[in-house]
Amino acid sequence: MTKPKVASDWLAGCAGCHMSFLDMDERIIELTKLVDLRSTPITDLKEPDEDGVDVGILEGGITNTYNEEVAIKMRERCKILVALGDCAVFGGVPAMRNFPGATAALRRAYIETESTDESGMIPNDPELSFPVHVRPVSDVVKVDISLPGCAPSADAIFYVLSELAQGRMPKVDGEFNDWH
Amino acid sequence: MIQLTINGQPVEVETGATILDAVRKAGFNVPTLCYHPKLVSYGSCRLCLVEVEGARTLQPSCVVPANNGMVVHTDTDKTKSARKFILSMLFSERNHFCMYCQDTDGDCELQQAAYDEDMTHWPITPAYKPFLVDASHPDFILDNNRCILCRRCVRACTELVGNATLGFEERGSGSILIADNNVPLGESTCISCGTCVQVCPTGALIDRRSAYQGRETDLTHVDSVCMDCSLGCERVVKTRDNRLVRIDGNLEHGFNESLLCSDGRYKPVSETRKRVTTPMVRRNGQLEPISWDEALSAISAQFKAHDSSEISAHISPRQPVEALSAFHEFFADHFKAGQVALLGHDQTALASVKLAAEIGAFESEISVLKDCDAAIVLGVDMVKDHQVAGFFMKRQAMQDLKLFIANSTSTSLGEWSSNKIDYIGTDYPAVVSLLRGFAKGETANLTEKLQQLGLNPAHAEKVLGQLKESQKPVIVVGNEFARLDNLQAFRDLVLLAREIGAKVVTLKGKGNNFAGGLLGYEMDAQAKTAPVFYLALGDGHACEHTLEAMSGSEFKIVQSSYISEITDAADIVLPCTIWAEQAGHYLTSEGKFGLNQQAIQAADGNKSVLDVLEVLAGKSGLTIAETWRDSVQEKVAAVVLS
């Protein structure tokens, strides 16, 4: 049996969920015996294989058009999509921006900051992606497994991945369902 | 009794019980949010929906009465899907992001309800509509963005506290919690009792001091009793790492039904006075640190150098019965000190004890206030003092309570009652004589008598008539009325109570005043200057007259937790533990012992009043007896009816 391929990426998050993934320590070696770890934001390969992977993992919420593209690409290339952490599942801390609105948040950050003088301006380079209403991944693409937590524990991540690696659908409940 | 079946299991409940009562009695559980055991059920959140065979729709179990023969199912696909849907809707309405909420990880009932349904995400995207945050109150913050509109706070404010400050404005999902007619909480009629904060199931009402200090499970819970006034409300002191974090009412037991006032809940955790850290002695006009041994030897030498009548000993009623008993034994029994007094001027306890010795036990327990239909309140403003007892009266006032209030200042106690007489003055003998005469049917010169008291005769006569017709009258007396120099009026009042079948409740001032009265203390309103002045102040405050009497003394010994003008004037200062650092009993107004358990450890160098007394007694070759309980208990029975 070939090992299932796993790819991950991060959107608008703090990288904390990936740090929590690394927190599983030596179990990563066990895990790599079970799965073929493909692209991740912390390894050389950055994009999931064009011919697809079995499991895609996304950390972070959708805050701009680039996040949308990444989420859509991951969804197209994976069979099972895992939303990892509170930002991917609910929108998380970046979603606080939705209460005042993106424009007000950008003004506060780039123009009204106490240390900014009158030359302050909101970045407007055409290369930059466009900020959107912050949403969970599931508002953009279909999510198969939600693993909430800020961050989800290494145990919870190991449980979900090892279940998937062995061809079972993990049930996130009990101590593993911790929204924080 | 009603018989019904829950999930196939037969169960029997009292008539009037709800389906929820039956479900819990049968050993099952249904999640709830707006339901609270201390409040009238409301049925607004719908989380407790159950399937009742034959019913057209799912039924809210917290409000639907159990009926004979009902067949109820709590965990069907239908109920589970309804619960998930309700929770999805709740999460979609406002800011319920757990990761930046104070109330999380097991403390939030909304979050817990979601966990119980194994929800891993929100099926409906939130609306992100911002709502009002009111941070104007010194003790708590109201964040409408976290509110689920369960109205527990509103119901608690009205049903439990009788204050009716909180209410809702707007309708449906736009409803917002407001104070009064939408004024900032800090400027409202809120009395800062904190009951709303304690019953809030989410992070909508946030306690300022304990916010982000840890989850309930991180805190150590210690059952305790409040010693601020003589009611002795039961409370739970919550600590972490030897630090006071929060005080809550005790939901499990206590006459106070989990209620506390701001003095019981917030005052002890907002202490700003500076602690005394070491024993100090006055040398060349300045207080200088010395060792405990030196300090205690110096005190002992003073006691030996003076005739016992030259000692004046004063103790705070915030001290436990153990300390009061030992203090009295040491200074009054062994030393025959010139004065052995309790700080304060409230003579209610002393007057009650004296009167009961003459005419027998006459007092009833505080709980009679909870279902009285008429009340005569003499000489106490229950809105300011003994507030929790005042809550009971205020809620009765909302239920058509007939009220006669006599006090030197006006009170808002009866603001909800339309049948009330407010006598503002202090001619208590005239008031008692009027009431007693009216009860006996003596109506001669009634109009004049009422006019003399400054009352509207027509209205007063109507209310007096209603008072006379009442079924469960109570008489509440306090500080201004129950005085040793007013004992005749007090005696007449008790006779009136016996004649009309009214229950008498006396509110006995501060902490352990009742125990002090029974142990034979006098109040220190006429504090006497003596060559040696011993003041066991503890964490209390002393009045001006105590300071004045003390300042005339040659040698002033003060046991105090905090630095104040009292310690500044002392010759020897002994650092003393505060209430939370010592254990001890408090005798409540109604004559029951409450135990204040030690919640935190004192810093090295602090000793309790009792510890110091034991050492001083040892230096005088005495041992302090520990047999106070039975004798106090016996004396209580002579005052309070069993």
How are the secondary structure elements laid out?
The complex is a heterodimer of chains A (180) and B (642).
Chain A lengths: L4 E6 L5 H7 L4 H8 L1 E2 L15 E7 L2 E3 H13 E7 L1 H5 L11 H9 L20 E5 L9 E3 L6 H12 L15
Parallel strand pairs in A: 1-2, 1-3, 3-5, 5-7
Antiparallel strand pairs in A: 4-6
Helix pairs in contact in A: 2-6
Chain B lengths: L1 E5 L2 E5 L5 H7 L23 E4 L6 E2 L10 E3 L3 H17 L15 H8 L16 E2 L5 E4 L8 H9 L5 E4 L6 E4 L15 H5 L5 E3 L12 E6 L8 E7 L2 E7 L12 H4 L14 E4 L2 E4 L2 H14 L5 E5 L5 H14 L4 E4 L5 H12 L14 E5 L8 H11 L4 E6 L12 E5 L3 H12 L6 H7 L4 H13 L3 E5 L9 H14 L2 E4 L6 H7 L2 E2 L8 E7 L5 H8 L3 E6 L4 H4 L3 E4 L8 E4 L5 E4 L12 H11 L9 H9 L5
Parallel strand pairs in B: 1-5, 16-17, 16-24, 17-23, 18-19, 18-21, 19-20, 21-22, 24-25, 25-26
Antiparallel strand pairs in B: 1-2, 3-4, 3-5, 6-7, 7-10, 8-9, 11-12, 12-13, 14-15, 14-26, 27-28
Helix pairs in contact in B: 7-18, 8-18, 9-15, 11-14, 12-13
CATH topology of the largest domain in chain B: Rossmann fold
In whole angstroms, the N-to-C terminal distance of chain B is 31 Å
User: What would you call the structural class of chain B?
Assistant: alpha/beta
Q: What CATH first level of the largest domain in chain B would be assigned?
A: Alpha Beta
Structural class based on helices, strands and sheet pairing of chain A: alpha/beta
Instruction: Provide the β-strand percentage band of chain A.
Output: 15-25%
End-to-end CA span of chain A: 38 Å
Q: Give the oligomeric state.
A: heterodimer
User: Spans of chain A of 5+ residues with little confidence (pLDDT < 50)?
Assistant: none
What general outline of chain A do the C-alpha atoms trace?
Answer: elongated
Shape of chain B: globular
Domain unit count of chain B = 4
